[in-house]
Amino acid sequence: MRRLTKKKALTLVKELDAFPKVPESYVESTASGGTVSLIAFTLMAVLAFLEFFVYRNTWMKYEYEVDKDFSSKLRINVDITVAMKCQYIGADVLDLAETMVASDGLKYEPVNFELPPDQRLWHMTLLHIQERLKVEHSLQDVLFKTAVKGAPPGKTPRDSSSSPNACRIYGHLYVNKVAGNFHITVGKSIPHPRGHAHLAALVSHDSYNFSHRIDHLSFGEAVPGLISPLDGTEKISADYNHMFQYFITIVPTKLNTYKVSAETHQYSVTERERVINHAAGSHGVSGIFMKYDISSLMVKVTEQHMPLWKFLVRLCGIIGGIFSTTGMIHGLVGFLVDVACCRFKMGAYRRLDAPLNPQGEAQNGIPAENFIQ
């Protein structure tokens, strides 16, 4: 009984075979079939190779949500060179709540405003990258992928052998997560009951020169490899009494790639500058003012790539599709060739069967000896 049951089961399985085998005696190999097979296998290999590169490639996915973190501090990373001596200028932050933030994290270093040739070359390269980023926004995805975790590389020391004519202000400071104003102006800042003030009266107007170069300005965690919109900005002032303003909108960003996971910030900026001339009605204070505001939306940037199962499905689709399509095309071409040959042979036989006239020619005017006997 068990053997009978097994035989019935095997018989049932054989009847369900969707791929019946054809005996080799009924299979005929042709040169055209071999040529089509060679083309099909080559095409399969090329497309499978390209599909593997698609599988290896990654892309950035952007998601948006409301930023619910208002209690944490915002870090500002600064590296700015101003064409004035360090004892004549001061930098600090005043937020929207009129709270003056201590600038203890900033350092002042006397330097020369002109860059050495190697640093000038890097500065020009950075400006070129900034121009391309404005046109090709997809380059930002490349920067996200190349970002790495860790401390940013140290700055190359500048040549200060001659008398320094500028001041490099660099470092970081932590501010409240509200709108504020980071500024560099004449005189050191001092506390004031209504905010703060700068001791500008002791500095001569002839020494004013707010020409500056922003080597780096970013918000949040410093991530090496990312380029901020103001990096490389250089402004030359033709007038000693000049105001430079940068209106910055900060967007909190969570970056998750295969190399780094960080909470940083992107920002957009609008620039404005004008000469201070009280007689002409242009009032204000000479200096560099960066007024920033924080967006309530947060961007989540995640690096993704094709899952393995999807790659295998696409690969099977490529191989099976090419195999089936080339088989159908080969069969259709063979059928058309057979039909054409058959019609040609039928035409030849009709000419052989045509009646002859008394001159020994067929009625169509062709001599009978020209036909195949």
UniProtKB/TrEMBL annotation:
Q: Where in the cell is it found?
A: Endoplasmic reticulum membrane; Endoplasmic reticulum-Golgi intermediate compartment membrane; Golgi apparatus membrane
What GO CC terms are in its UniProt record? COPII-coated ER to Golgi transport vesicle; endoplasmic reticulum membrane; endoplasmic reticulum-Golgi intermediate compartment membrane; Golgi membrane
InterPro entries given in the database record = Erv, Erv_C, Erv_N
Entry's Pfam families? COPIIcoated_ERV, ERGIC_N
Q: Does the keyword Transmembrane apply?
A: yes
Keyword Iron in the entry? The reply is: no
Ranges annotated as spanning the membrane: 35-55, 311-337
Q: Which UniProt keywords apply?
A: Endoplasmic reticulum, ER-Golgi transport, Golgi apparatus, Membrane, Transmembrane, Transmembrane helix, Transport
- Which residues belong to any copy of the Endoplasmic reticulum vesicle transporter C-terminal domain? 163-329
Instruction: List, for all copies, the residue spans of the domain called Endoplasmic reticulum vesicle transporter N-terminal.
Output: 13-98
Membrane topology type: Multi-pass membrane protein
Biological process terms in GO annotation: endoplasmic reticulum to Golgi vesicle-mediated transport; retrograde vesicle-mediated transport, Golgi to endoplasmic reticulum
Similarity section: Belongs to the ERGIC family.
Which PANTHER family would you find in this protein's record?
A: ENDOPLASMIC RETICULUM-GOLGI INTERMEDIATE COMPARTMENT PROTEIN, ENDOPLASMIC RETICULUM-GOLGI INTERMEDIATE COMPARTMENT PROTEIN 2
The free-text function statement in the UniProt record for this protein reads: Plays a role in transport between endoplasmic reticulum and Golgi.
Give the protein's recorded name: Endoplasmic reticulum-Golgi intermediate compartment protein
